[in-house]
Amino acid sequence: MVLEKLGNVLRKTTDKIANAVFLDKNLVEGIVKDLQRSLIEADVNVSLVMELSKKIKQEAFDERIKGVEKKEHVIKILHDELIKILGKKRELVLGKQETWMMVGLYGAGKTTTIGKLASYYAKRGRKVCAIGLDVHRPAAPEQLRQVCEKVKVPCFISPGEKNPLKIWKKHEKEMKKYDLVIVDTAGRDALDNELVDEIKKISKEVKASESFLVMQADIGQAAKKQAQAFKEAAGVSGVIITRMDSTAKAGGALTACYEADVGVVFIGTGETPADLETFDPESFLSRLLGMGDLKGLMEKIHSVMDEKEIARQQEKLQSGKFTLRDLQTQLDSMSELGSMDKIMGMIPGMGKVKEKMGEGVLEGQAAKVKKWKHAINSMTPGEIENPEILEKQTNRIRRIAQGSGCTTSDIRMLIKQWKMLNEMIKDQGKMVEGKMDQKTMMKLARKFGKKMKF
Question: How many CA atoms lie within 13 A of 318 on its CB side?
């Protein structure tokens, strides 16, 4: 997860405060030093770190606040101050027709981010298209075409044309059919007058409703200068930070945008189209503290399954008929959501479980899921629709194992998991219909609680 080390320190800090009999000087000094070290390692501005430290010390030694109240008060101050330096959440509400322009320097990830944004809104029922107005980098049009093709979104390009305004005018009429048009623009090694002039001309022509600066997390505190410069020169209305999964310096980029008064609207947390999240400081901090982020998890689910597919799956589950093909669809969606580590970090209460399990167990679960998918692909349609026929036919199990590179134990485990899920779904149907008393429900909860092991 993003800023894992900082998250661990924040969790330990809140635990130390909560478990302390009283807050003495040594405990507070130790907590503040740990916080300072981890925040500075995450590249948060030193002046912001000192300001936070001063605030915590003041509140911890305020004689007007006594006992348990003081501990709760200090934890709240820590939470509020961290939220403050992460910045405010900005709600993006799409109108009937929007044009978003992406700006930024070379290598920031503009084109990849366009694909993620296009996928994000297309999965939510919006008609989205992209247009390539980067006329300086020869490979830019083809790269945008490939990115858009991957997420099944239309893309307008004119390879060889050197005037971005001509490309826009050529496709302008056709783009009026779309709810959201995302514009790719050229980058530079630095923000120079030529780039500023080009961005201003394009923005005026396309009448951009939003201009987003795309920059990578690993630039750290330099993000402040870049955000301010693009805001003044090109009127950027928000920032999208990429590579949030790969760097501890992400703290610097996030807090620098707060200092520059340019809000972060999205963060990129990986390479797949689903690895894009709206930036919500409360949810982000909740995840850092190991308290999960169900809102973010639901957002990710909507990013890998469109509304029609979600409705179809729910209808299927309510019918009580759950086949191995349905299980495979669920496994595919899980794979697109990201690593097991990332998913568990978003489920409330699973942060500590994840720490106890360790990376080896999580990797083992991911490998098991991969084997199950191969096994299902090696089955006949009849076996997929009626997995119960496999239970007593060892020759079928042997054939599937050989065809998928699994062991017979892997296949039996898959069938066992399917049986358990199928049983749960049938019982869920009874609960919905009101055909199950409380005693039976409690019995089922204990039964499945024992079975659901990693």
Answer: 8
